[in-house]
Write a sequence for this structure.
């Protein structure tokens, strides 16, 4: 089959996946989990076929790769379909860990460690933290409707399909450079990434740094209100009880 | 048979697997005995006897404790999140146990039956990003605490988990900065290379004293030990995140904490105390009689020297474990705002300064230089001076809060100026 033919196979696979996700998304009582699971498995099998025969990647027959990719994709599906937000966040952690393991399989140790430290160790901890603050482990009201019903499942699935199909198409069409020899791997992973980032992608790195700084200052500006306790009026005269101390109005 | 054993021990994979198997046993025992020593050191600090009933000197106390833990009822309270309630202790323990593999325990050895010039590493795994691996594993430790606290459906446990999450996130940053300083100086993420660099030059303790203090502080915070044990502050939170846990599930949290301490001690010993080198500057002692022995320990590839190096490294770990316990029974607990202020206004700025100094030294082409310790101590002095000049104690109560409280009449006296 030509590369063009494989692109259409990929689109079909992505459409199958989108259908599976649409069926699996929580819809209160009337959920189609089983059908979604069947379509999902079909989509995964199609994906592996494309990988093995379309791209000719031997990784598709590697047992570890299979297990890890199933964990990643399955975890990602559960992130959006699980009715409990805390479990969604924990499935996200699983996706990150499995992705890091895939990076190790591909020889990108530094990327794997950075992924775990930044995403699993910092960002997702704050996610879990905030979700836990919002919800006790067993609420008295039982499962809440906004957790058990997907909002706009059709449109989000279509958007996801377009994204995945485009990415997969580009990956198939683009001639990828052959992997560098063992010498490139032997020279330290961190060293080569550092060299690339600080020479070829130096401007992008600086831009990302500036962006983060701006975001941080913006967050501080929004979050921090002055606490003018120096000019707190004497409690007995001007202010009625209950309004002493902070005189901050949020808006 | 002999040939097979020689083959297994002579390959790096076989040796590493044997080493991991033995070290898991040793570490599990050590973790159990850590609890015994914790109680003995507490008793010593407080002028008591400590455990002395089971066995000579109470040495069988950990066995008795273990039997007791197993025989206790494993109770699951009502209305907990059952899955996460069971998963949390496993996460805490597993994460604490997998950090050991990358620690460079014994350096390079060569068995007598091996060819000349071939060497094996006496450690679990030698990976290119060893330090990052330890950081990644350490950053996962918070999940055990957070999940345990949340799934218990108990407000005290949940407060403990919240505090732990905020604390671990905050102290990871200064920890990273302190380690980055050392990484810049040695130019390596591989832990053996860091030890080799220290054998070739000087211990990082001498080159980066302030980074050492910073890593020690953050290691105390990351392992949730006093003075940073707000997650399990008994006076306020009953038991903190493990309030609802009983039997072996509680024991897993408890053992995980000590396993974490041992890993952190190993990290400190590797990065700052020259790993398996018995004393600093052994390369200069090669000529003298006793110094010659020390040099042999640090550099020989004979299995005997490797064994001695294991002992040296274990001794350093034991020393740091003792320091952790010593600190716990000597210092009072921080308040939460003091904790946050120490991290964000104290450790992070000083760490940034250290990183800048070390970066400049690297730019000059002299990553290992006597000016590094001088500059770091100077930085510490400047930070102290800024603190004094600003008139605010870094661990003091926020002045505005105090004034507001006094206006509300919650504290006596007139509003402070």
């Amino acid at each position: 089959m030509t590369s063009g033919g494989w692109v259409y196979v990929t689109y079909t696979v992505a459409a199958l996946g989108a259908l599976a996700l649409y069926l699996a998304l929580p819809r209160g009582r009337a959920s189609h989990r089983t059908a979604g699971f069947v379509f999902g498995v079909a989509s995964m099998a199609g994906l592996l076929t494309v990988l093995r025969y379309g791209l000719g990647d031997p990784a598709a027959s590697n047992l570890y790769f299979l297990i890890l990719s199933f964990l990643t994709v399955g975890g990602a599906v559960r992130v959006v379909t699980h009715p409990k937000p805390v479990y969604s966040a924990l499935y996200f952690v699983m996706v990150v860990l499995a992705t890091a393991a895939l990076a190790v399989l591909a020889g990108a140790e530094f990327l794997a460690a950075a992924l775990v430290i930044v995403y699993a160790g910092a960002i997702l901890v704050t996610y879990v933290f905030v979700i836990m603050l919002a919800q006790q482990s067993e609420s008295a009201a039982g499962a809440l409707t906004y957790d058990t019903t997907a909002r706009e499942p059709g449109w989000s699935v279509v958007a996801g399909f377009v994204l995945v199909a485009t990415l997969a198409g580009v990956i198939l069409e683009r001639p990828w450079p052959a992997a560098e020899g063992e010498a490139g791997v032997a020279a330290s992973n961190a060293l080569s990434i550092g060299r690339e980032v600080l020479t070829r992608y130096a401007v992008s790195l600086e831009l990302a740094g500036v962006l983060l700084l701006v975001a941080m200052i913006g967050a501080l500006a929004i979050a921090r209100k002055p606490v003018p306790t120096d000019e707190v009026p004497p409690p007995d005269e001007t202010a009625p009880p209950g309004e002493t101390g902070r005189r901050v109005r949020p808006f | 048979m002999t040939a097979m054993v020689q083959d297994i021990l002579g390959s790096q994979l076989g040796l590493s697997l044997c080493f991991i198997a033995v070290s898991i046993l040793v570490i599990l025992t050590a973790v159990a005995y850590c609890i015994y020593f914790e109680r003995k050191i507490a008793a010593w600090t407080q002028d008591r006897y400590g455990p002395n009933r089971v066995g000579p000197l109470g040495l069988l106390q950990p066995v008795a404790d273990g039997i007791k833990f197993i025989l206790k009822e494993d109770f699951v309270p009502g209305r907990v999140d059952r899955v996460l309630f069971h998963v949390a202790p496993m996460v805490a323990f597993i994460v604490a146990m997998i950090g050991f593999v990358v620690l460079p325990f014994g350096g390079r050895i060569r068995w007598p039956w091996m060819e000349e010039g071939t060497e094996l590493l006496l450690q679990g795994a030698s990976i290119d990003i060893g330090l990052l691996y330890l950081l990644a594993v350490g950053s996962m430790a918070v999940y055990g605490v957070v999940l345990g606290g949340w799934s218990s459906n108990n407000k005290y446990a949940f407060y403990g988990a919240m505090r732990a999450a905020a604390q671990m996130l905050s102290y990871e940053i200064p920890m990273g900065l302190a380690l980055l300083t050392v990484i810049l100086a040695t130019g390596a993420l591989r832990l053996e290379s860091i030890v080799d660099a220290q054998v070739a030059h000087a211990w990082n303790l001498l080159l980066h004293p302030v980074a050492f203090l910073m890593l020690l502080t953050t290691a105390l915070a990351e392992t949730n030990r006093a003075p940073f044990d707000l997650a399990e502050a008994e006076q306020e939170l009953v038991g903190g995140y493990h309030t609802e846990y009983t039997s072996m599930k509680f024991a897993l949290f408890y053992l995980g904490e000590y396993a974490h301490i041992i890993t952190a001690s190993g990290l400190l010993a590797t990065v700052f105390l020259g790993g398996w080198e018995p004393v600093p500057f052994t390369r200069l002692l090669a000529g003298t009689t006793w110094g010659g022995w020390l040099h042999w320990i640090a550099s020989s590839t004979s299995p005997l020297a490797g064994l001695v190096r294991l002992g040296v490294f274990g001794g350093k770990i034991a020393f740091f474990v003792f320091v952790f316990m010593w600190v716990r029974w000597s210092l009072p607990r921080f308040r939460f705002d003091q904790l946050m202020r120490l991290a964000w206004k104290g450790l992070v700025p000083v760490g940034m300064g250290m990183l800048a100094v070390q970066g400049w030294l690297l730019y000059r082409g002299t990553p290992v230089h006597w000016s590094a310790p001088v500059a770091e101590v100077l930085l510490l002095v400047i930070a102290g001076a800024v603190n004094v000049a600003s008139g605010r104690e870094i661990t003091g109560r926020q002045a505005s809060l105090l004034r507001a409280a006094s206006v509300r009449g919650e504290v006596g006296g007139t509003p402070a100026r």
Q: What stands out?
A: Chain B touches chain A through 39 residues (CB under 8 Å). Residues 2-361 of chain B form one domain. The radius of gyration of chain B is 24 Å.
